[in-house]
Amino acid sequence: MAEGGTLPTIHPPSKRVKSEVWKYFGFQKNAEGMLVEDGFPLCKTCGRRVATKHGNTSNMFAHLRDNHPIQFRDINSINASSSAGSSSAEAIVQPTVKEAFQRQASYGPSSHRAKEIHHAISYYIRSFSQKTELPKMYNSLKEEVGKRIARGKWYAATTDLWTSSGGSGHPYISFTIHYLLDWKLQSNCLETQFFPEDHTADNIREFLDNMLQEWGINKEHLRRRELRSKQEALNVPQRSLIHDVVTRWGSTQKMLQRFIEQQQAVCAVLATDRGAWHLMPKDADIAVIEQVLKILEPLSAFTDALASESRVSLSALKPVLSHIISDILDVKNEDSALTKDLKRLMKSDLESRYTDDAKKVMDLISFVDPRFKGSFSEDLEATVNFCTEEASKLTFQTVSEGLAQTEQTSTASPIPTSENQQQSLATLLNKITSTRQQRAEEGEHSSTLSLNSKIEAEVKVYISVPVIKSETEPLQWWSLHTEELPHLAAVAQKFLCIPATIVAALVFSASGHVLSPLRAKLKPEKVNMLTFFHFNLED
Question: Which residues form a coiled coil (predicted)?
Fold first, then answer.
């Protein structure tokens, strides 16, 4: 209470309030005439301060009840009358939308309340997204991709081993599968897993086995289709080849070209450091780099084109290699001694890089590409024979799989019969199978000849058709000629899904963006989910 027994001037709160108790409470003004709403309103009757928390009026009611019974009875009578007509009172008291927005308190970005609100919202979004929405979205997309993969018939794969940037340096392994659907090449990055084990062939094989089992891909079925032999031919389990992607000709050419462009700037920097003078390139060094660039520049376009996963099939590799070895690396009289040596070394490396079996497969894949056919085959007759053998194997395999599926379906729901009926049926079936086997032995040779004749006829028709333009899509051509050449189409469908054989650099690049230095603490399972979304979630 103020000096002399007089109460200070008490003003109502600045905000509109509903409770009648505020008729007996208020706030003082400071020297500047501003209302001091500090959460401790003063009683207009006795001048005492009453603590309120976030606008709660319970303490004010208690103060009136204990100290001012007359005022307390007045408020109770007002509340009783207002409760009798609560609906009409609420209609009158309810603010408009404009008034509701005007009442909202504004918090500065650095205020404590704003930070609390931001933290609560961020925690909710993070908790909901990571624990609920992301796993739900991942499982839904994984099921959709699994159904799409199940529609494929032949598969090829690329893998990548890489280390995350930032302070963690965690090792990861990625697996991408390639296949054909409706004669369109499809690619799906299935897994990007934390891989702390040693990068040995056994550990990588175990990862592949677990991954194939997780996605419901029959490993034995893939082994029959010789997919594993393709992986071994690509030396996927060998660590050295995985890291060779950094030193492929395309990147080396770009590095040397940029050095030549920035030669003066680089030399200027080296000149300022006496300890680095020994690194200063000499004229002879520059001459060597320029000669190397002259050889690598024509190769750059081919290496960049073969780095594509979505468009380039392995069928393009044989024509490109043939052009590089026969034309680009052909030693000319005007070449310098260094250029001649480099060309010989590169040519020798390319010629010895692929085994005879790998070259045989490359010839076959190039043959079933309607852009090339037998143009780049070293032995066209041997390639045609190999193609005929593959077509025959695929035909018998398709028939065998159909019979096995029919047998499995029939044995799944046997029809109950009596013992006499079973014996009678067994006797009849024995006679039927004996007769059929005898006929089959007599006609097996002729049926095989008939199948080979059909395949050879298809090969002749295929060769007689003019090659298509190089810019034409070969898979689209096969989609239009499948009915005319069914046996060759089966061979094309098996082999044209194999991509150009490079490490899946696109996965490394995309995963590097996901696992940036700012996200170095991201858990491996979240890296796998985000990478899976990047490659498989359609726009």
Answer: none
Q: Which helix (H) or strand (E) holds 61?
A: helix 58-67
Q: DSSP string covering 70-107, please?
A: HHHHHHHHHHHHHHHTHHHHHHHHSPPHHHHHHHPPP-
Instruction: Judge contact between 248 and 255, C-beta under 8 A.
Output: no
- Structurally, how many domains does the chain consist of? 2
CB atoms within 10 A of CB 48: 13
Same domain, 164 and 231: yes
> What's residue 449's pLDDT?
55
SS3 of residue 55 by DSSP: coil
Quote the pLDDT of residue 166. Answer: 58
Q: Provide the pLDDT for residue 395.
A: 84
SS3 string, 428-454, reads HHHHHHHHHHHHHHHHHHHHHHHHHHH
What span, in angstroms and rounded, lies between the C-alpha atoms of 217 and 153? 11
Q: Which two tokens stand for residue 376?
A: 């780049």
Highest mean pLDDT among 4-8, 72-76, 133-137, 489-493: 489-493
Give 423-460 pLDDT, tens digit per residue.
455 555 555 555 555 555 545 444 555 878 888 898 89
Phi, psi (deg, nearest 5) at residue 273: -115, 110
Looking only at the bridges linking them, the beta strands covering 25-26 and 184-194 are: unpaired
Does 364 map to a domain? no
Tokens at residue 109, please?
Answer: 């970005």
Q: What is the DSSP string of 148-205?
A: HHHT-S-EEEEEEEEE-STTT--EEEEEEEEEEETTEEEEEEEEEEE--S---HHHHH
